[in-house]
Every structure is written in C-alpha cells, then in structure tokens.
Amino acid sequence: MKTLIAFVSALIFVLAGPTMAESICGRAASADFVIGEYKMEMGPREIKTSRSTRIFPNVFETPATIFAVNDALFLVTTIGAIDISLTPVSADEPVWQFSAREGFSPVSSEDMGLAADCDFADFPRLVGSGTMTDVNGIVLDVTMKLVILLASDSIELAIGTLEYSIDTISDGRPFHMETKVKVLLNPI
C-alpha cells in the first residue's frame, strides 16, 4: 500500500504544473545530483521459474547511500547488504519498459512519461551491478536499473528494479529462478 501511495503521490506531483521533472527531462544522471542519503523501498518481488510466475507483496525499507569515489558512483545499504557500482546510462541504451501489473506496479513507464510530458527514455537513468547478501548469508550477483523521475539538488524520486537469477539443482533436476524486485528511492 505504501508503494501505491508513493506512485500516486509522484504522479500527482508531476501533474501539478511546472515541475522539477521538466528540468531533468533529457538530463544525464551525474554525481552532482545523485550523491546523497536515501530511503530505499524494495518490493514487491516477482519470481519466475520454469513452472510459474509469482508475486510476493512484501515491501521493506532500508537506508541507502549513493557516493562517488574517483568519478565512480556506488550505492550501498545496511539492510540486505547491497553493494552496487552505478553508471549513468547513455542515450543510445535501449529504453527500459516497466509495465503496470497487478501486485507489482500500479503504473507503467508510458504512464510516467505521459504524466511528466517527457519521453520515458529522456529521464536520467543509472544501471549497476554488484552483490546482495540474502537472509541466509548467500551472496547474489545483482543488476540494478534506476530511472530518476524527479530531482532538484538530489534525487527526489527514482524507480527501478533489482534483478538476480539463481541456477541450481533441485530434486536432481536443473532449476532456474529469476527474481525482479521493484525499487523506489526517496530522500531521507
């Protein structure tokens, strides 16, 4: 429910007239406005296997910090032990699409672009890879994709995904699982 409220609030804010979104449309993601302390909401989570796709609605929050070291950007959290190296996405990178799906996201990337009067591909984007330690202590390789929807001196709202896959043997058969976790980033 909190995630739906955050999405609706962002869309109302974007629709409210001249916005910060207008000033970031077409702007590249750079250290000058992405470095900072944030609250990161993670969830719901979509898990796909060869047998099914399920959505788990749990959402949890963790403090997150984006910082720079020698022109490289990093995102770290305390909960979930996420450590990701981020890179601004170039304009020639294919556009990421977020679809509106029951239980996962109430709005699509197209909805967000229309609400902000900005082609979704023109919002600043960050992509990164790194690791996340799960509750059992297993270290997973992850990919994060973030689209910055609102910003002034720092990120006001970013949406994205944290993705990872697991290949293992279950009951003597190969087993593949893909997980996509919705991520919202807001200032603390």
- Terminal-residue CA separation: 19 Å
Strand-and-helix sequence, N→C? HHHEEEEEHEEEE
User: Which shape, going by the Cα principal axes?
Assistant: globular
Number of helical stretches of at least 4 residues? 4
What does the average pLDDT come to? 80
Q: Largest beta sheet, briefly?
A: 8 strands, antiparallel, barrel
Name the helicity range: 10-25%
Task: Describe the strand arrangement of the main beta sheet, using strand numbers.
Answer: 1-3-4-5-6-7-8-9
**Can you tell me the residue ranges where pLDDT is under 50 for at least 5 consecutive residues?**
11-21
Structural class: alpha+beta
Strand content: over 45%
Number of strands: 9
Please tell me the total number of domains: 1
Oligomerization status of the protein chains: single chain
What is the C-alpha radius of gyration, as a whole number of Å? 17 Å
Furnish the topology, listing elements before pairings.
Layout (H helix, E strand, L loop, with lengths): L1 H14 L4 H5 L6 H4 L1 E14 L3 E4 L3 E10 L2 E6 L4 E7 L20 H8 L8 E9 L5 E13 L3 E16 L2 E15 L1
Antiparallel strand pairs: 1-2, 1-3, 1-9, 3-4, 4-5, 5-6, 6-7, 7-8, 8-9
